[in-house]
Amino acid sequence: HGVVAEVIEVGSSVSKFKVGDIVGVGLIVGSCRNCNPCNTDIEQYCKNKIWSYNDVYTDGTPTQGGFAQSMVVDQKFAMKIPDGMSPEQVAPLLCAGVTVYSPLSHFGLKQSGLSGGILGL
C-alpha cells in the first residue's frame, strides 16, 4: 500500500515539497477537505476520500497506486523521506509502521520507556 517516490512536479499551492524530494505516500491520496472527518484530521472516514489504488481521481482517471507511471497526491497525504534512507528501509514503515503506530498513539502508548509486543500473522 505504501509508495516511495520522487516528486516530479508540484502545484502552485504546494508548500511542503519541491521537485526532487523523495516522499512516502500511504493509502489515501486525497479527500474533500470540507467534512467533519477532514476538519478533525480523520480523513479515513471522509465519504469522498481518494484511495491510492482501485479508485478514481476527481477527474475520473483511475488510481493505480505503486503500479502507476505517476500519481497525484494532495500534500497532506505525503511525507518527506529523510535523506539517506533507501526505499527498502522506508516501505515497511509506511504501511506496517503506521498500522502499528496509529493505535498505540491513539491509546496513549507513545511515551518513552513503555514496552509492547506486536504479533503479525
From TrEMBL:
Among the Pfam families in the record, one is: ADH_N
Q: Which residues form the Alcohol dehydrogenase-like N-terminal domain?
A: 1-83
UniProt keyword list: Metal-binding, Oxidoreductase, Zinc
Q: Which domain of life is it from?
A: Eukaryota
Keyword Zinc appears in the UniProt entry: yes
Q: Which family does it belong to?
A: Belongs to the zinc-containing alcohol dehydrogenase family.
Name by which UniProt lists this protein: Cinnamyl alcohol dehydrogenase
Q: Which organism is it from?
A: Garcinia mangostana (Mangosteen)
Gene for this chain: CAD
